[in-house]
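User: Hey, quick favor. My workstation is busy. Could you predict this chain's structure for me?
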Amino acid sequence: MEQSRSFWAAFALLCGSCALGLANPCVGVFALIYLVIALVACAAYLVMRADVRRVSSAADEASRDGAARRADAMSRAGLGFCSVFAVFAAVGTCVLTMLGLDPERGGQALLPVQLAPFDAALDLWALSAVMAVAAAVLLVSAGADVRRWLRRVR
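Assistant: No problem, here it is.
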């Protein structure tokens, strides 16, 4: 069984969004939500791949049917929720960036070490958000890949 290129591209984009968020002085540690989303999606993807393998190699109909239902549900719900949370994280980091750039209350880095100047905060957020939204689309595409594998092995 082949790998889903769209899943691994989404995983890389989410990790890149995390790195850019960590460099953003207004977001800081809160960017780790991207990493959490990436790791949850990776765990779900690996379980789905194992279920698809189980469907193709199981001897009895009951275990094959159960694995197929679980893989189908996880491809829709698991990767779907991860894609929705990636978009929510992009919006949340926007709010943090806007609050950090507020002239009255902003100007404090959210990490002990400021990795980038505040002038670059909006640019870092924009690039991180575009990467997160692209990752969300790719996660939905990866779920479709898993369902296509299921149809092929049934």
